[in-house]
């Protein structure tokens, strides 16, 4: 199978790297050509998609997008230089971005009209950097069970937990609600660490206590300890993405 992959950012780069390791051929593209070249240099069985025409996309059996938001996904697929027009009839499109479920439903109807099934398949993870080891969690939304069956080997190559959530947009709805719960814990933890230090508590010890108590969450177990207290801030979840995700949740 040959898979198209568009978007090699913090998450997309590592998710895509799982595919050639499990036998898939990849055609890749990113807004940053140097990042695309770096990926191809580091991963066998992968090639760069040409910028000038859509010939590379004519041979893919599925196309995956991992982009900042649903508006960019739609433009990449159906815009002036959209990839969708080059795909063979029936090619499965998989959007792993954190997109609005309402935008996804609209995109699904547009793609369905030209014979392309869409799966919204956003990700989350049980531990920091699980996406690098093929242990991601997928939430799937799709109107076609047959399309999910066809794409399942892709999800199994990149993920450990795969949950069909329902019709088109359901995966993105679950993703934004997951992020809502996660962000709530991040805010509570940050407030608690500031208040605790004012009282003379050591933040590292505070996190030790939380991790063996009812306050344990993803941030106490991984990102705040590994990236916050160390001041590395390399978890990959930027403040701008957090705000974008919460705007999506507000609309659900």
TrEMBL record:
Keywords: Branched-chain amino acid catabolism, NAD, Oxidoreductase. It comes from Hyaloscypha bicolor E. Belongs to the HIBADH-related family. 3-hydroxyisobutyrate dehydrogenase subfamily. This is 3-hydroxyisobutyrate dehydrogenase. Its EC number is 1.1.1.31. One of its GO terms (molecular function) is NAD binding. It catalyses: 3-hydroxy-2-methylpropanoate + NAD(+) = 2-methyl-3-oxopropanoate + NADH + H(+). InterPro entries: 6-PGluconate_DH-like_C_sf, 6PGD_dom2, 6PGDH_NADP-bd, HIBADH-like_NADP-bd, HIBADH-related, NAD(P)-bd_dom_sf. Pathway: Amino-acid degradation; L-valine degradation. It comes from the Eukaryota. Residues 2-166 form the 6-phosphogluconate dehydrogenase NADP-binding domain. It is an enzyme of class 1 (oxidoreductase). Gene3D superfamilies: N-(1-d-carboxylethyl)-l-norvaline Dehydrogenase, domain 2, NAD(P)-binding Rossmann-like Domain. The active site is at 175. Residues 169-251 form the 3-hydroxyisobutyrate dehydrogenase-like NAD-binding domain. One of its GO terms (biological process) is branched-chain amino acid catabolic process. The keyword Oxidoreductase applies.
């Amino acid at each position: 199978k040959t898979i198209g992959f568009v978007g090699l950012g913090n998450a997309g780069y590592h998710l895509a790297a799982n595919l050639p390791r499990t036998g898939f051929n990849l055609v890749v593209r990113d807004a940053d050509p140097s990042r695309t070249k770096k990926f191809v240099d580091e991963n066998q069985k992968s090639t760069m998609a040409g910028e000038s025409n859509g010939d590379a996309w004519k041979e893919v059996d599925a196309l995956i997008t991992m982009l900042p938001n649903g508006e960019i996904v739609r433009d990449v697929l159906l815009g002036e230089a959209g990839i969708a027009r080059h795909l063979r009839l029936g090619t499965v499109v998989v959007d792993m971005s954190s997109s609005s479920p309402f935008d996804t439903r609209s995109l699904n109807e547009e793609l369905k009209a030209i014979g392309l099934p869409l799966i919204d398949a956003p990700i989350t993870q049980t531990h920091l950097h699980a996406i690098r080891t093929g242990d991601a969690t997928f939430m799937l939304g799709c109107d076609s069970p047959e399309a999910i069956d066809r794409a399942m080997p892709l999800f199994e190559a990149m993920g450990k937990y795969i949950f069909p959530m329902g019709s088109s947009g359901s995966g993105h709805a679950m993703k934004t609600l997951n992020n809502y719960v996660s962000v709530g814990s991040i805010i509570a933890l940050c407030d608690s660490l500031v208040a605790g230090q004012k009282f003379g508590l050591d933040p590292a010890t505070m996190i030790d206590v939380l991790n063996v108590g009812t306050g344990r969450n993803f941030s106490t177990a991984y990102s705040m300890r590994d990236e916050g207290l160390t001041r590395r801030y390399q978890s990959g979840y930027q403040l701008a993405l957090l705000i974008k995700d919460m705007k999506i949740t507000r609309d659900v």
